[in-house]
Amino acid sequence: MVKPNSIILFLLFFLPTIVFGQDGEKMLRFKVVSNDSTSVSGINVVNIVNEKSAVTNGAGEFYLLVKPGDLLILQKETFEYKRQPVDEDDMGKSVVPIKMISKPIALDEVVVNQKAATDDLIMRHKDHKKFTPGERRLYTATTGLFDPLINLISGRTAQLKKELQVEMNERLLARIDQVYDDQYFIEQLKIPADYVGDFKRYIIDDPAFVSALKAKNKTLMQFEGARLATSYKKLMSAVFKEEK
User: Does residue 108 belong to any structural domain of this protein?
Assistant: First the structure.
């Protein structure tokens, strides 16, 4: 027969490992609330810090392992993109409320072309055999006995770094064309056909989207793409109105 004291000691020892994760993480209960009657079930949630994910139930509730400083991304086609930071106050709440605003956005499944090279979006390759033309020119200008100093003073090194970034941007655009066709931007993200190319250049300036693109993270690409489409259309709203 197990003594009551033994049970208490067992719970005291193991309970913290059940409720708390590593580095101060804690399992919290969240509840999504809609600004109208839109269903809050089936909302995809990702903690982009520890990469844990969840889906809301019929009441809009979900449990997730988090810590202060984490960032949750919530997405469903019937709601606006939502970024929910986790702070110290949240850690003491029995339920953490999250308000979402309904806004229909249909997102198709993104299929990444697996033929793309796994390291073709690396700015500086370690293997010299994989150097791009831009990397080779910069390497040549920054190695040797006298060339690095001469090129630094003349400004050639700075110019080559700019050219390398241009080369990287072209590779990012090529990867986007592998992942999406133009109809995705036009039909799903509602970008005017004449501005699809401009929108592609807009999104490769966003570190979060580029990070998701390099990692081939389909979920985050959807989240970040929808967010950037909203901000781009707001930025260009005056231009779009003039052309109507």
Answer: no
Identify whether residues 96 and 140 lie together within a single domain.
no
Q: What is the domain-level CATH number for residue 48?
A: 2.60.40.1120
Residue 135 in tokens: 């990397």
Under 8 Å between Cβ of 114 and 138: no
How many domains does the chain fold into? 2
Tokens standing for residue 227: 């967010």
* Residue 29 CA from chain centroid, whole number: 23
42/132 same-domain check = no
Are the beta carbons of 94 and 174 closer than 8 angstroms?
no
Question: Do the Cβ atoms of 220 and 46 come closer than 8 Å?
Answer: yes
Beta-strand (E) ranges in 93-183? 96-100
Contacts 24+ apart (CB under 8 A), 236-244: 236/195, 240/192, 243/192
User: What is the Cα Rg of the chain in Å?
Assistant: 24
Give me the mean pLDDT over the 29-54 stretch.
88
Q: Indicate whether 82 pLDDT > 50.
A: yes
Residue-wise burial string across 95-126, b where 16 or more C-beta atoms lie within 10 A, e elsewhere: ebebebeeeebebeeeeeeeeeeeeebbeeee
In a domain, 210, yes or no: yes
Is the overall model pTM greater than 0.90, yes or no?
no
- Euclidean distance between the first and the last CA atom of the chain, given in angstroms as a whole number: 81
Domain extent at residue 234 = 128-239
Give the strands of the sheet with 61-66, arranged side by side: 61-66, 26-34, 96-100
pLDDT at 151: 57
